[in-house]
Amino acid sequence: MANTLGTTNANIIAQRALEILVEDYSFIRNAVTDFSPEAAKYNATVYTHRLSALTAQDYSQANGYVATAATQTDAGITLNKFKHVTYSVDDQERSTSQVNLIERFAGAAANALGLQMVGDLLALVTTSYGSAITVSSTSFNYSWAVSAGQVLNNNKVPANDRYAVLAPAFFGSLLKDSNVVANPQISGEAVRNAGLGAVAGFNINMYPSVPSNSITLGGFFAQREALLIASRVPEIPQNVTLPGTIENVTEPKTGLTIQSREVYNIQTGVLQRTLALIYGVARGETSSLVRINGA
Fold first, then answer.
1. How much is the pTM?
2. Using one digit for the tens of pLDDT, what is the confidence trace for 39-54?
3. Which of 45, 54, 204, 240 has the fewest Cβ atoms nearer than 10 Å?
4. Fold classification of 6-50+76-123+228-283 (topology level)
5. Cβ-based neighbours of 136, under 8 Å, separated by 6 or more
């Protein structure tokens, strides 16, 4: 049956695009996130928080519970990325297509927005993060994940919420490591879906477009506080007659929100849809990330 306007509803596509984006680029959730459906102006600054490592102290009979200096630090993130995906469908395409247009357009939109957001986030992984391991992709194995964990431990980085993002060659080498594949808790998933899950305390993710960043970056190991990302949506014009509809759609698990804009030209028979958001990225605790310098 041909698709109609109802089956390609803008909000349905926007919702599905968000679901695909969060699923395909799940490691975005591993960073400190401040996703909100609130409107914001381009280049505005929003504040989130990053948490430094805590230190346990002895109880003092004389002074009791002595407070240490605050370790939660305000971190400003400039919303300087205003991105959108816009496409159009004419009446003939909508009335003759036999494909699922919701999945088709949602997948394409999610991929475009996801690649941009992740690309901007990973562009921050430079020598500003001082800790690094140097290894070629062919020599990369389980022991290097252990070494990265030791570096973070020495930096007094919390053991919770650790994750890794690996370029395909490094991920492939880890996937072939017998120490990993022989693990019965991992091997089934690895064989079926090429997924590794948690290895040496890190949630392992593969990303196909890890940027070189002029340091032959092969990926990184990190804890949640290392990278920060915040997003908002554009303001909706007030007290004016809109030639279409504008609505915000939120992914419930993460709070990530995109704005859906839709307008139909009755003369040309073209329906145009836009998915848009404003976001920014920033470095967090630089001691909480270990770069992989590909040899």
1. 0.80
2. 888 888 887 765 555 6
3. 240
4. Major capsid protein gp5 fold (3.30.2400)
5. 294, 295
